[in-house]
Amino acid sequence: MSVLDALEAGPASLARLVQITGLARPTAHRLAVALERHRMVTRDSQGRFVLGPRLGELSISTGEDRLLTIAHPVLLQLRDLTGESAQLYRRQGNVRVCVAAAERSSGLRDTVPVGSELPMNAGSAAQVLLAWEDPERVHRVLRGAHFTSSTLAQVRRRRWAQSVGEREQGVASVSAPIAGAGGRVIAAVSVSGPTDRLTRSPGRLHAQAVTAAAEKISEAIHGTEQATALRG
Questions:
Q1: What contacts 129, CB < 8 A, 6 or more positions away?
Q2: CA-to-CA distance for 123 and 147, rounded, in angstroms?
Q3: 156 shares its domain with 108
Q4: Are 174 and 150 in contact (CB under 8 A)?
C-alpha cells in the first residue's frame, strides 16, 4: 500500500519510491515488481513506475466510484446551464483521462469521448491538474507546455483556468479543481466548445458556473467521506 500511495501522485523512479516510502531499495524494488506482475503497477515510456490498469478495472467492477456517481448529475446541469459540453478529467501518469462527459446535444461542439487520453501540457484541465502538483513534476511538464508557471500561479489564486486553442485550434475551455480528502486536487471539471462561441475570454462567460460545479462535487465527496468515517 505504501508503494501504491506513493504512485498516486504520479510516475516515480525506484529512487523516488525509496525516498517517498522510506523502504529499503531492495524491498521497494521487490514490491513494485510484484505489483507489476499483477498489473497493479506498470511502467511509463521512461521506465518509471505508475499505477496500473488493474486498479481501474477493480474500480469499475465495484460500481462504487463515488466521484463518477456524484459528478454525473452535476455535469448534466453544467452542460444545460452553459450550453456547452462538460467533462471530468483525472490525471493518470503523463496524461489526463476523460472519465465522464455530458455532450451538447446539437450544433457545433467539442466532443471528448470517455476514456480519451489527452496531454498534460495543453488545455485548461491540464493547468488545473498541474497547478497544485509538487514543483519538480510541474517543471518537467512546463518544458514543452503551452502555458507557464505564471499561468499556474494565476490558476491557484483564482481557482479556475481557461485556454484558447491550446489543445486544438478553434477550441476553448474553462476548468476548475475538484478537491478530495485533505483538500488534494483529484480531478478537474471542464466545459469546452468552439472559440467562436466561447470567445477569447471563456472564463468571463463560464468560470462562475464551472467553479460552482467543482465546489458542488467537492462538497458531496467530503460528505460521503464523513459518512463513511462515522459508519466505521
A1: 89, 90, 91, 96, 120, 177, 185, 187, 188
A2: 9
A3: yes
A4: no
Helix (H) or strand (E) holding 45, with range, is: none
Cα–Cα distance measured from residue 192 to residue 207, given in angstroms and rounded to the nearest whole number: 12
Burial label, 177 (beta-carbon count in 10 A; 0-12, 13-18, 19+): buried
Of 61, 83, 107, the last residue of a domain is 61
153, three cell numbers: 500561479
3-state secondary structure of 57: helix
> In terms of domains, do 109 and 78 share one?
yes
Rounded to whole angstroms, the Cα distance separating 4 from 32 reads 9
The answer to whether 211 and 160 have CB atoms below 8 angstroms apart is yes
- What are the mean pLDDT values of the chain's consecutive 10-residue runs (232 residues total)? 88 92 94 93 89 73 69 95 95 88 78 89 96 86 91 97 94 95 89 95 97 95 64 53
3-class DSSP state for residue 196?
helix
pLDDT in tens, 166-223: 988 999 999 999 998 778 899 999 999 999 999 999 999 999 999 999 999 999 988 7
Contact 72, 87 (CB under 8 A): no
Q: Which of 120, 110, 172 is nearest to 147 (CA)?
A: 120
The residue range of the domain holding 183 is 65-231
Total-model pTM: 0.72
